[in-house]
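In the current project phase, we have settled on a layout for protein records. A sample record is reproduced below.
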Amino acid sequence: MMENLDKNECLELLKNNYVGHLAYLSQSWPFVIPITYYFNSDDNSIISYSSEGHKIEAMRKNTAVSLEVEEITTIDNWKSVLVLGIFEEVNGIDAKYLLNQFSKGVKENLDKNKNTTPHFINEFSSKSDSMNIPIVYKLKIQEIFGKVRRP
């Protein structure tokens, strides 16, 4: 049986996870890629970062994006949430603050859910190996939808 998740259940799913699938448009084509994220409940946004490249260039041109996060136990026991949001690049001291919040939040989530505590950001995010300055961004949540299927 499939049902809708209410808003609180959707937010809880976002809060309890740290990997999702980001969708954005580039030259009229949709792209979907996995990202590591942190849900910031204080301002109802998704925090992430990346190096300069295709994804960042595309989101700067078309700021409408979506993020899908799921928890799948079996084929007929899963939850999924879809966030519709607006890309917002963050700079300066605000970017440094959000990157710190991202790092702490993902580490806490990993510790809680996987019984492991990483010591460095590169243990859960591949972009930290880049020598470039990271591009920190937020996805300002505009709408959120969720589905659940229970056996």
Remarks:
- Residues 2-149 form a domain with the Pnp Oxidase; Chain A fold (CATH 2.30.110.10).
- The CA atoms of residues 107 and 118 lie 6 Å apart.
- Residues 120-129 have pLDDT under 50 and may be disordered.
